[in-house]
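Example 9 (inverse folding). The structure is encoded as follows.
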């Protein structure tokens, strides 16, 4: 079902440390959330029935690297399981939410690089660029950590220009899920749900493009994310048919 499971790597930490400190109560709650979140994903993940679909010109495997991959914050839970243990580097914010999500995903083989669009963004982008130079894929939840929902931010496009690594996007639609009443409408798959993972075609950003023209590529990235989301949500009920067979 999952191509990622054949690319096992040890979970290590490569991060820009920050001064953030939590109270005793927050640390206790963090431990509870991390344990509950990890075991929920670990138990639900193997029951998911996944189909991987691609536009022409899209990445050919989940573990392909190096790439700069973008997706929406709502897809974090299924993405954590399906893309596990391939050493993807991700930007993790200093917020309380970012802290527990960062610790959970590290248990699934991701490597968190600390920073966000509002804090230590330059350090985080430098860390991600170094990861790309080392041959790793990096990933962004583009509307995180607090929105606005489904709106692209400029970080991945600037990183693509400076690194020469193409942009990739995906969306995951789930046919049976709890959807939280939060800013991101977080998707929590129910057991034995069908998942359609749709990749968009790769986008290359020339190294000599001007700052003004970066907005053109940012708009292209937005269009691609909107397109794969619409496709996945429109076709989720077809997963498991000859047109959209389960991944093996």
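The amino acid assigned to each position is listed next.
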């Amino acid at each position: 079902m999952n191509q990622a499971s054949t690319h096992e790597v040890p979970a290590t930490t490569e991060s820009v440390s920050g001064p953030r400190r939590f109270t005793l109560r927050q640390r206790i709650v963090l431990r509870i959330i991390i344990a509950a979140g990890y075991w929920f994903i670990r138990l639900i993940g193997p029951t998911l029935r996944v189909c991987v679909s691609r536009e022409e010109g899209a990445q050919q495997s989940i573990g392909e690297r190096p790439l700069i991959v973008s997706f929406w914050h709502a897809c974090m839970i299924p993405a954590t399981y399906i893309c596990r243990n391939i050493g993807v580097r991700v930007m993790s914010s200093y917020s309380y939410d970012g802290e527990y999500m960062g610790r959970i995903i590290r248990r699934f083989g991701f490597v968190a690089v600390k920073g966000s669009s509002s804090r230590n963004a330059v350090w985080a982008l430098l860390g991600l660029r170094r990861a790309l130079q080392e041959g790793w894929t990096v990933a962004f939840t583009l509307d995180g950590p607090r929105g606005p929902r489904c709106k692209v931010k400029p970080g991945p496009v600037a990183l693509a220009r400076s690194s020469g690594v193409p942009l990739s996007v995906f969306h995951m639609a789930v046919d049976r899920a709890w959807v939280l009443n939060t800013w991101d409408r977080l998707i929590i798959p129910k057991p034995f749900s069908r998942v359609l993972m749709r990749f968009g075609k790769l986008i290359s950003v020339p190294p000599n493009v001007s700052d003004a023209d970066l907005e053109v590529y940012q708009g292209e990235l937005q269009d691609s994310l909107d397109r794969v989301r619409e496709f996945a949500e429109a076709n989720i009920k077809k997963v498991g048919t000859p047109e959209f067979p389960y991944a093996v």
